[in-house]
Amino acid sequence: MNDPQILLADEPTGSVDTVIGNRIIDFLIDLCDQKKVTLILATHNHEVAARTNRIIRIRNGQVEGISPSASSE
User: Fold this and answer.
1) What DSSP character marks residue 72?
2) Angular region, 55: left φ>0, alpha ψ -120 to 50, beta rest
3) CA separation for the pair 56, 59 (Å, rounded)
4) In sequence order, which residues have a C-beta less than 8 Å from that of residue 31 and are 6 or more positions away?
5) SS3 for 67?
6) Cross-strand bridge partners of residue 9
7) CA 2, CA 57: separation in Å to the nearest integer?
8) If we measure between CA atoms, which residue out of 41, 38, 37 comes closest to residue 56?
9) Full pLDDT tens readout for the chain, 73 residues
10) Which side of the chain, N or C, has fewer Cβ within a 10 Å radius?
11) What is the model's pLDDT at position 73?
12) Which residues contact 22 (CB under 8 A, 6 or more apart)?
């Protein structure tokens, strides 16, 4: 609980405006980089997904595709 290896975030920007959403994502990415923690982020927001290293698209409970995001290329 205090030193997790994986941080799960389910729609962390779902109910906030773009400015606050960007701050949340900045915080999560910086925290995980500092602590060497894996972040698993569920989102419907393509702009948020584009800030990650890898995107795993899921449809109807099945993995539809895995690709590097634009930020990791």
Assistant:
1) G
2) beta
3) 10
4) 7, 37
5) strand
6) 41
7) 30
8) 41
9) 688 999 999 999 999 999 999 999 999 999 999 999 999 999 999 999 999 999 999 999 999 999 987 665 5
10) N
11) 53
12) none
What tokens appear for 67 in the block? 């690709």
Which amino acid type is present at position 4?
Answer: P
Cα–chain center distance at 12: 9
Using DSSP bridges, classify how beta strands 54-59 and 6-10 pair: parallel, antiparallel or unpaired. unpaired
Question: How far is the CA of 39 from the CAs of 26, 32, 53, 62, in angstroms?
Answer: 12, 7, 10, 20
The strand ranges marked E within 5-51 are: 6-10, 38-42
Quick one: pLDDT at residue 68?
Answer: 87
Which pair of tokens denotes residue 66?
A: 């895995």
